[in-house]
Amino acid sequence: MDFELTEEQRDIKKAAKEFAEGEFDKELALELEREHKFPWDIWKKACELGFIGIHFPEEWGGGGYGIFENALVVEEFCRVDSGIGIALSLADFSSEIILRFGTQEQKKTFLIPITEGKAISSGGFTEPDHGSDITIMSTQAVRDRDEFVINGTKTFITNGTIADFTIVLCQTDFDASPPYRGQCTIIVEKGRKGFEANEIGEKMGIKMTSTAELSFRDVRVPVSNLVGEEKRGFYQVLEFFDESRIEIAAQAVGIAQGAYERALNYAKERTQFGKKIAQFQVIQHKLAEMATKIETARLLLYKAAWNFDQGRIDPKLTSMAKFYAGRVAVEVTDEAIQIFGGYGYTTEYEVERFYRDARITEIYEGTREIQKNTISSAILGKLK
Amino acid sequence: MGDVFVLAEHLRGELREVTFEMLNKGLKMTEDVGGELYAILLGHQVSHLAEQLKGWAHKVLLVDDPQLENFNSEPYQVVLSHLIKHRRPSLILIGHTSFGMDLAPNLAVELGFPLITDCIELRWEPAGLQATRQIYGGKINAQVSARESDGYLATVRVGSFSAEQGVRLTGEIETIASPLAEEIKYKRFIQYIEAAIAEVDITQAEIIVAVGRGIGEQENIAMVQELADALGGVVACSRPIVDKKWLPKERQVGTSGKTVKPKIYIALGISGAFQHVAGIKGAGTIIAINKDPKAPIFSVADYGIVDDLFKVIPVLKEKVEALKS
Amino acid sequence: MDIIVCVKRVPETAEVDLAIERDEKDIVKKDLVFDINEWDNYAMEEAVRIKENIGGTVTAVTLGEEDSRETLRRCLAMGADRAMILADPALQGSDAYATALALHQAIKKERYDLILTGVQASDDGYAQVGGILAEMLGIPHVTMVTKVDIQGKLAKVRRELEGGLEEELEVELPALFTIQTGINEPRYVSIMGIRKARGKEIRELMVKDLELTEDEVGQKGSQIHLEKVFLPPVEKEAEIIQGDPSQISERLLEIIKEKGGVI
Questions:
Q1: What is the pLDDT of residues C104-125, one digit of tens each?
Q2: Taking CA atoms, what residue in A is nearest to B292?
Q3: In A, what residues contact C, Cβ < 8 A?
Q4: CATH number of A235-380
Q5: How many CA atoms lie less than 13 Å away from A131 in the CB half-sphere?
Q6: Could you say which of A18, A22, A50 has the minimum Cβ distance to residue C191?
Q7: In this structure, are B160 and B93 located in the same domain?
Q8: Which CATH fold would you assign to the domain A121-232?
Q9: What is the mean pLDDT of chain A?
Q10: B231/C contact by beta carbon, under 8 A
Q11: Which sign, positive or negative, has the C-alpha torsion C122, C124, C127, C133?
């Protein structure tokens, strides 16, 4: 048993911190947030330095590290700026499906541009009628000789309007029982005829990240865009969720840490009633609770990520990490605003943005309720 | 025993102020233990400087050689070590300047003398030389002592001692034949390079708003520019801002930048390292805003605000604009 | 071109409220963040740029405690090819002279055309190691360098004087330059760099490997001894203005008007 990061992991964490502190600019973040723009320049630099796709093998332009190291990078990015951090963390969203299940050709075509800062990826799973429930898809892919013809609508799709390609979960076998055994994932590049992406509208947070509704009208893609086996789409996506939940947990821990540090510094500087507010026990206890929660969430995150890299995929553990880290992020950012008082409610002190951005970590990639379903079914097994 | 050498520093035909500061200090040090004060002048065709130094030392040692025309640590070291070996002073003072920093460490090794650099105070103790110097960018003082030795070297921080003449001495000039036998060629002076012509001349400004490390990010300079505009002033900065290329070199205030003399100098997020402070000695009123209550800038400022500059600046700017309209 | 860069791990103190240890020998360091000395980071970047332009090798060397390996790993990730650490406990407490002596013993057996150090370290700020090391090695040196241009066996360099003035010099190699901040824009450490650093060597040298005795290094071998550290006496105290931003601004306005501001 060893609770310390390795030297290399410490170096990665430090490199991510130095980059984020040097490049993530508060004024720029406020501007990008206002204008709902993706941080393109910072993303390019992050790719050049190898932060994006750090968990891809070197063969595909990656760093050859695991998702543990990816989690360290995401945590540091989100600690420095929740909005920019999340946007960068999701720049390669869903590309892991190609990484785990794709052909060599697909990896070369789609993964290398991700690491080179030439492409953004996206995953289309959620549908207007099927949010948390992906066991049946209304989006259909029908085989027509050497092509698939796709029809349907996806919603709440991260990176939808900026992605160069989207991995779309479709129903291909309409007779399969249960239906999820008849699903597949297909890569749809932007610009395919009949494909359209539109922003879903104003959101509470993650304003630098595109969230879109995608519509597919007789969109034709070659059969070579099918990822893995035709009947395995549902299973691929479930496996991907184990991975992506760790990433979201890392976002949550980073956001919580960033808000906590801001509140801590403020408490040491702010004077009220003739004392630094950090001298009041009520503030001290808040900080103690925040620090404890973050530490607990981080331990869960690290254990889940470490397990994944050991080849042990444990949905219960990844769901625990995501559920708990998300909760902690919301609670800690909430307390941070409280410590800042009125100033915390203004955009200038950032914690309100951290709070709004934290809130999504309890929703996307499976709501906290879905995580609890996964955890409880693992604990209880099939009840008779 | 007890003699003090002061290396006269001159550039383009003029003695630099640190020379007189060291001569004043050197005189006190000779008075403490008995001994003579020597001004050491190395150069080419600098007899007018030797005349100037006469009133400040018991003796002026002049070495004239074309190789000494522009400062170059190599010939300087040869000549100085020659003089020191013959005259055996107890202490050699050199400015902690670009010249001095290039020369002193090497000279100390050659002579086998202990060297204390960047001193702000010096005194004789029974065991030898003791000095006060600043560490951690001027935030902390350190008292250090050198091991026992027949001779000591010290470089002295500019501005640590007064340059105003006390007693006028009547030193004599002794010209010494240059010991430089052959041309020293490892390091050859080519030319001086002047600072680029400034778009904004901060040396002439009456109101300066200066930013330092505490500004955090380049984008924040815009906010400071707005305040400067509202006040009818200009934006200047400390060294870290120029190193990051956030503002051009001609906006830098301090030893390696410009010396300014505005009526009002507002220092934002500037800690107040001596290199910066040296450039604002002529300022009328200094206002400093810094989060660190122990920042050295507060001991040179007239008014201080211990707070986050980002909270104060926008409000101040609005109030200035409101007042003007 | 074989380049050796001397680096030091120091605490970041620029924006920290420092306190002094009870024994008055040092500041309280336990909560400080340590990283490569700022000047050394520029020196390291300059070395890597020269290597990238004209080929060669870069070796990073440090004297410090075992923690300084972190700083060397950073140098390796930035592009150094190998590193040496002088972490013998007997070396701790060395002043600039003893440090330079140990570095000299480590470096004199190496191949080099160029040695780079920072102008000074942000902790003790002696600005001596470079000059002493050059003198011991018997090679020319230039301090406060702001530009390096290698031309075969010669280097054309610029060094900083006061008041914005610089001088240009021509120096025969091998030579030692102390690098001033702002000479370049140091790169960020990349993931690829960290990965490559894994396979690079960090050689550890003990006092006996340096062919020195324990009396020649550490405090015993030092020329300068630290007696005590203390907070600078307050010679003049600024009048501190308190209040909320609005009250502070009102008072500032009064001062600005009174002192001749053009409002």
A1: 999 999 999 999 999 999 999 9
A2: A269
A3: 7-8, 10-12, 14-15, 18-19, 22, 45, 48-51, 54, 58, 63-65
A4: 1.20.140.10
A5: 7
A6: A50
A7: yes
A8: Butyryl-CoA Dehydrogenase, subunit A; domain 2 (2.40.110)
A9: 95
A10: yes
A11: negative
